[in-house]
Amino acid sequence: MIRSLFRHASMTAFALCLLVSGCAGEPSESGRSRLAVQGDEEPASAERGAEHYASHCARCHGADGAGTVVYERSIQKAKGFTDLVQKGHGGLAALPIFTDNLLESIEMHLAVVESAPELAVPEKARKLYERHCIACHGPQGLGGSLAPITITGHPAIASIVRNGEGAMPPIPASTLSDADLDLIQRYLLSIR
Asked: Which of 24, 41, 79, 114 has the most crowded Cβ, counting Cβ within 10 A?
């Protein structure tokens, strides 16, 4: 539920940022506003898709479309990619502001991009988790003396660790650096 709400909020915020940042919209046949992109009359190409993917999509979906902490599922070979973006799916907000031409370019880019190799989570990450987390959250983050970690793929984990929430005490950067916190989060994703 929290993940679904966060995804919806993230996608809505993303769409609002695009609109507020001065993206001029032009109505499509359906009357929806679309992102007006200079040179949109250019034929769709993977190169053009790579440029726009990096600007508009990579933050949430990863450089290769394989997913990130914000959106864990791969969109590399998503069936009905254009419909997914324009209409939304599974609780994700629709982003109907992209033209069909631009979406075709992004889809072409995703078809040729290779997945990044699986990054090995260093042993240090496991040891950090054991030192700072295992006593309350158990060996798999599924619960121990307190509660399961239910937000392992959620960016708010850093905020909860730093500020505390419920029975979770705040852990300052002087105790656990941002780099170490990132390692712990990667470790949690690797064991699930």
From this structure: 24
DSSP 8-state class, residue 168:
B
User: How many Cα neighbours within 13 Å face the side chain of 187?
Assistant: 22
Domains, the chain, ordered by start = 2-112 (1.10.760), 123-190 (1.10.760.10)
Q: pLDDT tens, 114-160?
A: 654 555 567 888 899 889 888 888 887 777 666 666 655 556 677 88
CA 108 to chain centre: 20
Whole-number Å distance between alpha carbons of 160 and 166: 9
Alpha helices in 57-119 (DSSP H): 58-61, 81-87, 100-112
Write down the pTM of the prediction.
Answer: 0.41
At 106-117, the pLDDT tens digits run 888 877 776 545
Integer Cα distance of 71 and 3 in angstroms: 9
CA–CA separation, 2 and 170 (whole Å):
20
Contact present, 118 and 128 (Cβ < 8 Å): no
117-139 burial, b at 16+ Cβ within 10 Å, e below that, comes to eeeebeeebbebbeebbeebbbe
* Contact predicate 2/154, CB 8 Å: yes
Mean pLDDT score of the chain: 69
